[in-house]
Structure prediction request, 228 residues.
Amino acid sequence: MKKTRLGGISAILVGICYLLTVIVVLLSPPGENAVIDHVTYMNQLMLVHYILGALGILGIMVVLTISRTLENQTKNSEWYPYSQVMAIIGFALLAINNFRQTGLDHELSHDAVHAGGAVLDAVVIGWVGLVELSPQGWIDFGFVGIWMITVSVYYFKISKNLSVLGFIGGSCFILTVLGNITGFSPLVMIGMGVGGLVIVPAWFMYNGVLLLKKPPLSISPSIHGDIE
Prediction:
């Protein structure tokens, strides 16, 4: 398999990026509203956007690499190609959305606060619609979560530990979406706290370590014992 090293390094970096994102967000507790937060914590939140933008690009590499490792096992599956495309769309939107916000959030939030009054009120009300391309996380969290769960089905005979991590991590991403939809914050806290801070980074970094091994991760029965 070609470029396994690039895919492995990318997977480790994706795990690190998810971890860093959650840590930085936790260090920037929400205030009165998102506009004020983007003025108060501008440097931290801009850093988050750059990290997530890079994560989206690296995530596409990881999806393509893992898909090649499972090529023989998924070649007769009608569902897997759809889940792969969903994950690529999810990571691509994550990159587009966050790189877009690096050039939008700073100017919009500062101009709104400077103008004050009705302008500030209007920007606060419309903030999510103005800056977010996937406000509830359907695409950037939900699509990636569905792909992680799908991959974990095929990973079960290769590495049970990796499979279980993938099931939990993907489910946490879906819980985050459900929490955003329903407004039930405990679901978001579980999804991002357990998933984003621990399980999802661990899953991607674990993938990266296996992809860097020689021979590379594959579905050949002869190497099942090597990667348990």
User: Anything to note?
Assistant: Confidence is low (pLDDT under 50) at residues 216-228. The longest helix spans residues 42-69.
